[in-house]
Amino acid sequence: MQEDLVFKLALKEADGVGGVLFRNLISHFGSAQKVLEAPAGLLEKTPGVGKGTVKKIKGSLDGLPEAQKLLNDCIKKGYSIISFQDEEYPSRFKGIYDAPPLLFYKGNSSLNYARTIGIVGTRKATEYGKAITEKVIAELRDFNVTVISGLAYGIDIAAHKAAIKNGVATLAVMAGGLDYIYPAAHKKYVNDIVKNGGLLSENRNENVPIGPQFIARNRIIAALSDVLLVVESASRGGGLVTAEYSNNYHRDVYAVPGNIGNPFSEGPNNLIKRNKAKIFTTVKSLVTDLNWDLDLEEFAQIQSPVLDLTKFTDDESRILSILSEKGECLIDNLSFESNIPLNKLASLLLNLEFQDLVKALPGKKFKLK
User: Fold this and answer.
1) What's the whole-number mean pLDDT along residues 241-246?
2) 67 with 143, same domain?
3) E-assigned strand segments in 123-201
């Protein structure tokens, strides 16, 4: 188990090997060790792998001592490393095309929560925004909900603090590594968050967060949240990025309406105006909409099964994701949406039909079976 993780950690560090290719390579070769030890010519035959990427993959063998050092550091600090192949891997990631293949986690609970709500918003939260956040979490206390946010100033930390205060589990998704609490002013909340839930990152322990990692962090919040609540945001705030991911991942999105003229009401108000979010009015109506007023056994029975996109190639995942979102889709539209040429797309669709995943309809339309 530990040896397998060392090879996975080394492969993860190879330039050009993103999450989708990482999963595809391991699925194709059977393990990260077999990927790193595969002949260059065989690697080049893998879809999405060119000579430059092969060179970087082979170079990852030199990174095995550093990977072992990272694993030892995680063990020493009580961090779990969770692979997309592990039972502990969040089931909510299975329907997500760009889900992280490896996770670093410190906490006392499973990442497969019964019910989750992501709460995000501006770093410059108003008293109104913080009060709404606290009220929502206090009223969700009896519904076995986990609150997910990003530990940032403003609405994020208000959500974590309210969860701690009300005995509600909370997960902080980090932009950097678990060693680098950002902002540093929020280190004082970490122990309570870990006791009440946990810290999660896709980045190695010592990584300092940079711009793109905050965007990537937002996609994890969206993917793990059954419903996202945007409390306050400027017209171009990070909360809107998270809402966009949530919509793409077919999650429910709600927005708290705000006063016209308040710059931090523009984001939520525009989401509602553009039908990108439902208007949030009360926790009672939210709970009813989500069927959270049912007990957990009844709730589980009405949940639709999620297609595990981590088991498919890059192109197949895109096709299945689009068909899941669109329903019936003309092959020409599917080609445009997926950016896959028609001749290649036809072959992929035929293969998915053989796997009993896709059904061809009259008029060159396709849908999921």
Assistant:
1) 94
2) no
3) 145-149, 170-173, 197-201
Q: At what angle do helices 266-273 and 238-248 cross, to 10 degrees?
A: 30
Residue with tokens 């609405």: 155
Looking at per-residue pLDDT, the higher value among 1 and 85 belongs to 85
- The structure tokens listed for 81 are 């490393």
Q: What confidence tens digit (pLDDT) does each residue in 316-351 have?
A: 888 888 888 777 888 888 887 788 888 888 888 888
* Nearest-angstrom CA–CA distance, 7 and 81: 13
pLDDT at position 270 is 93
Quote the tokens at residue 334.
């599917």
CA atoms within 13 A on the CB side of 168: 30
Is the N-terminal amide bond of 183 cis, ω within 30° of 0? yes
Residue with token string 């993103």 = 18
Q: How far apart are CA 298 and CA 121, in angstroms?
A: 32
Contact 116, 92 (CB under 8 A): yes
Question: What is the per-residue pLDDT across 73-123, written as a single tens digit (0 to 9) for each?
Answer: 999 999 999 998 898 999 998 778 788 999 999 998 889 999 999 999 999
| Average pLDDT value for the chain | 89
Q: Are 32 and 8 spatial neighbours (Cβ–Cβ below 8 Å)? A: yes
Which structural domain, as residue segments, surrounds residue 334?
A: 312-368
Q: What is the token pair recorded at 356? A: 């009993």
Q: At what angle do helices 64-77 and 2-12 cross, to 10 degrees?
A: 120
When divided into structural domains, the chain yields a total of 3
Indicate if 151 and 196 belong to the same structural domain. yes
Q: Cα separations (Å) of 109 from 1, 114, 220, 265, 330?
A: 21, 11, 17, 35, 44
* Residues 30, 243: Cα–Cα separation, whole Å: 35
Is the same domain home to 113 and 239? yes
